[in-house]
Amino acid sequence: MREAVSWLGEAFGFVERVRIGEDHRSQLSFGDGAVIIGDIRKERRPPRAGEVTHSVMVRVDDVDAHCERARAHGARVLMEPTDFEYGERQYAAEDPAGHHWTFSETIADVAPEAWGGTLVTRDDPARRRGSTRRGRMLARRAGTPPRRRGNAHGGPHAARTPPDKCGTRGRTIARQTARAPARIPSAS
Hints:
CATH architecture: Roll
Number of strands: 7
Radius of gyration: 18 Å
Largest sheet: 4 strands, mixed
Strand content: 15-25%
Helix content: 10-25%
Shape: globular
CATH topology: 2,3-Dihydroxybiphenyl 1,2-Dioxygenase, domain 1
Order of helices and strands: HEEEEHEEEHHH
Strand order of the largest sheet: 4-7-6-5
CATH class: Alpha Beta
């Protein structure tokens, strides 16, 4: 775990914020976001060769510089920095444990309709799907995650409690977002 934290800091620029035991979990921050990396045990395991278990997307200020930094520290670049019609410049990389990461920089403010997307407004019924029992059932059938209310455990306080003031909410949401590398071989 300590090797993973060190490598992710050197190659991708993450900063360790919270350590839970020496080799159990660690919260790594990057800009306004964070990810939790966890140890290998029970159902948590690194991907096997040729298998992608997840991908994490991270916003950066300069994709090209970030890509070069990652490459210099041993990240395998899967996709070179590329401009996309939706106004993002992105690259994809694989860490030494086989986890996939996409790093994205906004280069233009492009309306979703210009590239085939749809802007969802507060009044859009599809946005509310999942907020009722029937909505959750329909979301499961459609294969989309239901909308959660309250904090990550379903409680009513998340709307009033900022993530940085509520450790449980931040850890749980980050854990649901992605499981980052648990064991990464030394970069040297």
